[in-house]
Every structure is written in C-alpha cells, then in structure tokens.
Amino acid sequence: MARKKEYKEEEVIENAMYLFWQNGYENTSMKMLEQEMGINKFSIYSSFGSKHGLFLESLKCYNSKIKKIFEKLKNASNGVEDIKEFFYDSVKIGSQLGNKKGCLLTNTYNEFSESEDFLIKNEMNVFMSNLKNIFIEKLNTDASKSEETVLKQANFLLLAKHGLAAASRVNTKKEIEDYIEMTFKNI
Amino acid sequence: MARKKEYKEEEVIENAMYLFWQNGYENTSMKMLEQEMGINKFSIYSSFGSKHGLFLESLKCYNSKIKKIFEKLKNASNGVEDIKEFFYDSVKIGSQLGNKKGCLLTNTYNEFSESEDFLIKNEMNVFMSNLKNIFIEKLNTDASKSEETVLKQANFLLLAKHGLAAASRVNTKKEIEDYIEMTFKNI
DNA sequence: CCCAAATCTAAACGATTGTTTAGATATTTA
DNA sequence: TAAATATCTAAACAATCGTTTAGATTTGGG
Predict the structure, then answer these.
(1) Rounded to whole angstroms, how far apart are CA atoms B164 and B147?
(2) 3-state class of A24 per DSSP?
(3) From CA B102, how far away is CA B111, in angstroms rounded?
(4) Is the Cβ of B170 closer than 8 Å to some Cβ of chain A?
(5) Nearest protein residue to nucleotide D17, judged by CA and C1' positions
(6) Average pLDDT over residues A62-89
(7) Which nucleotides of strand D lie within 7 A of protein CB?
C-alpha cells in the first residue's frame, strides 16, 4: 500500500455534475472541473479516465439525485395528479440543488441531439422511454381512457416535460407554474 | 478600384446560419464555417469582423427567413386558430430549409441563457417579447377573455412554443403534431 | 500599360482544448 | 527504518480554437 487519496469519488463527482448541469458538456473545460472539483487533472484522469467518462459518471450521479422523485411518482396512487406533482418536483429540485436550471438529462439530450455519441444517446433514450412508460401507467389508472388517448397524452406530457425543462432555464417561477397548470388542464 | 469579390455576403451568410442552426455557436468552428460558406477565414473576417459578428448576422438572416410566417400570423384574423397555424408553420420551416431542427433563436436562447453576452441576449429578449405581444393581440380577439386569462394563456403559449422548438429537435413529426393539438385544446 | 488597391491563399499567431508525463511527497508494510 | 507504491503538483504534450499577417494574384483607373 501507499499514500491515501485525499478525496472521495462520490463527493467530487457531485461538483462535476453541477458544472456540467450549468454549462453543458462542451462548455465545461478540464480547467473549470479542476477548480470546481477541488482536485487536479491527474486525479480526475486516474479516477474517471477521461472527460467523457467523467460526464457519464455525472449523469449517473444526476440519476441518483432524481431517483427520489421518480420513486415518489411510481409509488403514488392518484394518477394524473401525481404526474403534475412530478412536474413541480422536477422544477423544484433544480433550485434546491444550488439553483441550477433545467434538467441535466434534457440539456444533454438537446446538446447531443446532432451528435453520434451512442453511449450518451442510449443513456438518454433509456431515460425518456422509462419516463414515458411511467406516464402511461399513471394515465391508465383512469379506465375510461382509450389506449389511443393514453398514448397521445403520454406523448404530450413527455414533450411538455421536455419543453418545461428547456423553458425553466430562462423563465420565471410564476410563468413556469402557470405553464404546468395549463398543461394539466388539457389532460 | 481593384479586384472583385468572388462571393456575396447575403449568399454565404445563409450557409453560416444553417451551420449555427445545426450545431449552435460554440460547437461551430471557423474551420467548419470556411468549408460550409465556401470562402476562407480571411474573407470571413474582412466581411463580418469576427465569429461573433458572423453569428449576429446569421441571426438577422434567420429573422428575415421567418419574417414571412410572422407576417402571416400578424395579418390573419382567426384569433387563436392563427397561433396554432403559426406553431405548425414554425416546425415546418425547419424541414423546408434543409431539414434543420428546432428554431435557431430558441436554440440560441438556451445556449446563451447562462452567458453574459448582452448583445445576443438583447436580441433574444426583443424577439420573445414581440412574440408574446402578438399572442396577446390574437388572444384578445376573443372579447370574453379577461385580461388575466389572456396574460396567462400568452405565457403558456410562449413556453409551449419554446418547448416545442426544443422538443422538435428530438421528436417525431407525429409526436409534435399531437403536442400542438393538445396544446390548443383548451385555449 | 502600370501602379494602386482589394481579394485571394496559406501560413503563423497566441491561447486554450483534452490528455500525458516526470518527479516530488506521503503512506503502508515488511 | 527502508523499500514499495499510490497520489500529489506542475509542466509539457499535440491538437484545435479564433484571429492576424505576409505575400501572391487579380482587377480597375489614370
């Protein structure tokens, strides 16, 4: 054995995640990451392999952060009302975690939409289809809805969620609340 | 007098605009611009001053491209129905102009949301408030709506338009159509 | 026809990008 | 305590970024 590490991966990755969340992948440099993570390039590379590996790990970190509100949604039993609450939770979590805007996954989805990075695109698709399936499940608790209606509404909510994440980067809290309320008027 | 220029600014700027539209500002390099515009760096700099100047000019070029559907919206007289048509037109124009995704202005709005580039942010704010005012005007053609309702619905539509532009980069035509239809269900 | 000026090509600029390496420092174990 | 080794700092790496410059080429007017 030898010298001890002066940091914990699980701790420094959080700061990396916040930085990526705020600036996106390309606009976050190794220099900024050094500063924010509090360790230097050598340590980053020995722990995470590359900037790309660090980003993937940041996405996992983000996933674990939002796992709570996903579990809450899954375990709730008020159908559409739970989805609405999930929308509110999604916006709230950004201001709780250091006033970050939007959703890291949605930001990434947009930034990589023209990219050929299939590792990351796959991560995104898994997330989106999971979310869609949960929406479908919740919508199905209302037995009066036809399968077609459910699918259409699930698509609508998925885009609304995507749009909300994008818009929440530049709009006020009031505007966002109005948007969520109006969105669920249509369901 | 002396040698003649072998290109026209109005022509090459279009290709620059398409490239920015596709990749965003930061992810478009001068090298890519040289290739796509068909002129070299010297010419770009002598015509547009800098990458930043070129981008601003691209935004103006984009504005003139979408002017048509804005004028159409302004001059129409079917109230909300016209806004809906405007949503469809906004999506369509991307596929018409070389299968580009989303809206250059919205993409820019997102990319520069954390930036301190006030020249560009101002350009964005002017665009957004213009759009909002048009929405308000159209909504007001229905005299039964209270001022509060109109403002709330205008905010909703503005975010919906923003979200639509973001989502249209990654979603299918069918999903987008469903989204627009659902959006206007209760307006 | 030749000089002046504008536009071209292409190389070089310094700064920054992500990544690697050399060497000093600290810790564990035998 | 000494040898082994993991982790640190800090410099250097090649590649690319946006930008500038030097020099060749083309054009028009006197």
Answers:
(1) 25
(2) coil
(3) 13
(4) yes
(5) B29
(6) 95
(7) 4-12, 16-22, 25-29
What residues have CB less than 8 Å from A150, skipping those under 6 apart? A136, A139, A140
SS3 of residue B55 by DSSP: helix
**Cα separation of A65 and A7, whole Å?**
20
Q: Is the pLDDT of residue B3 over 90?
A: no
Residue with token string 């989502």: B167
**What is the rounded distance in angstroms from the CA atom of residue A84 to the CA atom of residue A135?**
10
In angstroms, the CA B126 to CA B131 distance is: 9
Yes or no, beta carbons of B23 and A179 under 8 Å apart:
no
Closest CA to A20 of A51, A45, A44, A66: A51
The per-residue pLDDT for A166 is 85
Confidence of residue B64 (pLDDT cuts 50, 70, 90): very high
Task: Decide if A21 contacts A65 (C-beta within 8 A).
Answer: no
Q: Which residues contact B164 (CB under 8 A, 6 or more apart)?
A: A159, A163, B87, B90, B91, B176, B179, B180, B183
Q: How far apart are CA B36 and CA B33, in angstroms?
A: 5
Q: How far is CA B28 from CA A31, A146, B93, B117, in A?
A: 21, 46, 22, 17
A57, amino acid identity? E
Contacts of B115-124 with C-beta under 8 Å, sequence gap 24+, read B119/B52, B119/B56, B120/B55, B120/B56, B120/B59, B123/B56, B123/B59
Instruction: Place B139 in a pLDDT band, splitting at 50, 70 and 90.
Output: very high
**pLDDT value at A16 more than 80:** yes
pLDDT at B9 over 80: yes
Answer yes or no: do A166 and B169 touch at CB < 8 A. no
The single residue listed with the structure tokens 């990755």 is: A13
Residue B133, number of CB atoms within 10 A of its CB: 11
Phi-psi region of B49 (alpha: psi -120 to 50; beta: other; left: phi over 0): left
